[in-house]
Every structure is written in structure tokens, then in C-alpha cells.
Amino acid sequence: MNFLLSSFLFIFSTFSLITNSTLVPSPLPLPPLLSLRCSPSPSTHHHHNINPIETLLDNLTSVAVDSRFTTFNTTFRQGRYSGLMQCRPGLRPQACILCASAAGNTILNLCPNSNAVSVWYDGCYVQISMMMMNSSHDPDHDHEAFMDASNHSCSNRAKNQDLARSGPALEALLLKLKADVNLATHHGFSQGEIAYDNINHSDSKIYGAVECARSLSPQECDFCVGKAIEKLQFYCGGKNGGTAVYGPCLARFDSNEFYYGGIHSAGAGGGNFTVWEGENGGIKRGLVMGYLGGGVACFLVFVLLAFLLRRTVVNIAKVGSLA
Predict the structure, then answer these.
(1) Is 67 left (phi over 0), alpha (psi -120 to 50) or beta?
(2) Burial class (CB in 10 A: 0-12, 13-18, 19+), 130
(3) CA angle at residue 54 from 49 to 56, to 5 degrees?
(4) What CATH number belongs to 154-260?
(5) What is the pTM of this model?
(6) Which residues of the chain have pLDDT under 70?
(7) Which Pfam family would be a valid example here (predicted)?
(8) pLDDT digit string (tens) for 69-93?
(9) Is 3.30.430.20 the CATH classification of the domain at 33-148?
(10) Alpha carbons 80 and 95: distance in angstroms, whole number
């Protein structure tokens, strides 16, 4: 009986370890910073204990997680502050919170007194602007400044040696993503992948994504996504991956899956462009492994109990025959 109890406890503890290790997702790492632009600081600095930009960011962050997109305006003394924050469609709440917090901390630490800030992280975008209420400043100037901000970064991996095949595939992928980004169901975001026959006559894939701030009109989104794609192809077309920012728009591609925090379904392309579920897919795989582990553990318990029951019956029969 003691042997039976100890065996059962051992198997139960093993089952618990299996399910805990597979069902509990690991903490998300910080998302990578893709672009940061700080304009010159405003001419008038307020020497006070209240930071209006921090207040603005707190308000944006508290709402963005639920809506995935929010704008907020506030005034402090002679300054009018406007902000925009969005998380990528399909990004899980935990990843959205982490991304929004990282963007806010970056602005507060690196651009605390700037009158125009835009920051792209892998998963979210934040835009802050300030103007003096008694100035003749044209609000459209800030809009143009955000549209003009641009930068790029390319993969530092070995140069792509298969441009004759990968080049047309990349162009087709980016054209498809650009065409889909303004669909109402995509909310200014489109991602996908494309397969092509590489130089070794085996399948290779390119993964891509484009995104624009949801405050833009469809025409503005189409224009700045097109500019981001032009920069991406010009600077990084011969590489294995890259990122290009043009104002409030972003274009990316890579030969490896790169979507931080996972993509559930929003913004998925059509046709041969498939959705990679990233972190969500990892959780689903964890659930499957947990259920499989639980099934195996239950089966082992059943086999062990059957064996012990048979052994007990045989022993009783032997004792009876001896008696």
C-alpha cells in the first residue's frame, strides 16, 4: 500500500511539472527600438515639479491597451500638448503594455523637453507634439515634420547571395502589403510571408510587415508607406532584412520571422500570405504539450494501478492456496 501511494505521488508530481512548464508562458523581453526622432527643445522651459509630457503619456498608456489606438490633448500653462499612441493590431495586451511603457520611458529619458517626438518600437508607435498657445505656430507644420522624419537600418547578417530570385519575391510581397494596409479590417497594418525557389532549388521565405499611424487618411497612409518601402528597397534590398521609417509609417522585411509579441489575426494578408501566430502560437503549442503530457501521465497511472492490482490479486490467490 505504501508503495502504491508513493508511486502515485511521484507520477502526480511529474505531471504537475510537465503542465506547469508548458502552460505558463515565459515573460516577454523588451521590444526593440526601431526609430526615435526628437525635434529641438522648445524655447520656453517650465521649471516646475509637474511634467506635462509625463502626464500626457500616462493618459495615453492607460487607454491604448484597451483601444489599441488613442489620442489625447492637454494644456499646461501656455503650452498645448497633443499625443498619439497605438499598438499593433493583434498584439496581446501584455506585450502592448510593455511596448507602450518602453516608448514612454524612452521619450521621458531622451526627449523630455522636445516639442515634437516620434518613436517606433516593434509593436507600438507614439507621437508627441507641443506648441505655445500664444504663438502663430501652424499646426500643419508639426504634421509635415512627422511626415519628413525618416531613418533606416539593415540586417548585419551576410549579404543576400540570391538576389535574382529573392528580389522579385520581396518586391511582390511589399506591393501586396502596401495594397492591403488600407483595408478597413487591417487597421493600418499588414503583414505576410512569401515563398520562392532559391538558388539551391528549395523553398525559402521572406517575411514582411507595413504599418502606418491610424490618424492618417488612406491617401496619407498609402503615400508614406510607399515612401518607407522605397527607402527599404533602396538601402536594404540586397540584405537579408531591414527596417525603414518614413514619418508615421514603417516597412520591414526579413528572412526570419520577426514579429515581436506575436500576431494573432488582425492585419493578415490574403492569398498565399499566411499568419504567423508568434507568442500566441507558442501558448497554443504549450497547451497541446500540456494536454499530451497529462494524457501520458494518466495512462502511466492507469497502467501502474492495473499492475499493482493484478499483483495484489495474485498474491491473495497464492496465500489462499497455501492456506
Answers:
(1) alpha
(2) buried
(3) 120
(4) 3.30.430.20
(5) 0.66
(6) 1-27, 41-50, 64, 67, 73-79, 132-149, 259-323
(7) Stress-antifung
(8) 887 766 666 667 788 999 998 888 8
(9) yes
(10) 30
